[in-house]
């Protein structure tokens, strides 16, 4: 904002200030009540996340074809999932061997 024109700051404040007595948008009503809307919102978000987590956990097995016959067979059976995870998190560079500390 240019301070050469102090009246522009006054106009900005007047235009940015909320106008009292404004009518709500069509099909809406003002939010009123004595309840704690923040608690209601957090509870609704929690309920949604618990429901979605349960649904995803139930359908997760379709993405896995694990072979429990041996440790090597298991490692080979989940290599595709590990590769996908590496790509998703950006861990695609070759690992360097650890040196002695």
Considering the chains and any ligands shown, give keywords for the structure.
mainly alpha; 101 residues
Structure write-up:
With 101 residues, the protein is mainly alpha-helical. The protein contains 4 helices and no strands. The chain has helices at residues 6-16, 37-59, 71-77, 79-89. It starts with 5 loop residues before the first helix and ends in a 12-residue tail after the last helix.
User: Which blocks of ≥5 consecutive residues have pLDDT under 50?
Assistant: none
Overall pLDDT metric: 84
Query: What portion of residues belong to β-strands?
Result: under 5%
Anisotropy-based shape = elongated
Q: Return the string of H and E elements.
A: HHHH
Q: What is the number of strand segments?
A: 0
**How would you sum up the major sheet?**
none
Radius of gyration over C-alpha positions, nearest whole angstrom: 29 Å
Helix content: 40-55%
Ends apart, CA distance between termini = 56 Å
Backbone structural class: mainly alpha
- Supply the number of helical segments: 4
Write the layout of secondary structure elements.
Blueprint: H1 6-16, H2 37-59, H3 71-77, H4 79-89
Short structural description:
The chain is mainly α. The protein has helices at residues 6-16, 37-59, 71-77, 79-89.
């Amino acid at each position: 904002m240019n301070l050469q024109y102090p009246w522009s700051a006054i106009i900005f404040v007047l235009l940015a200030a909320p106008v009292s007595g404004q009518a709500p948008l069509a099909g809406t009503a003002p939010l009123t009540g004595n309840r704690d809307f923040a608690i209601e919102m957090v509870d609704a978000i929690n309920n949604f996340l618990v429901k979605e987590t349960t649904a995803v956990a139930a359908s997760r097995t379709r993405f896995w074809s694990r072979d429990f016959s041996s440790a090597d067979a298991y490692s080979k059976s989940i290599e595709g999932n590990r590769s996908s995870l590496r790509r998703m998190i950006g861990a695609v560079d070759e690992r360097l061997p650890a040196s002695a500390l």
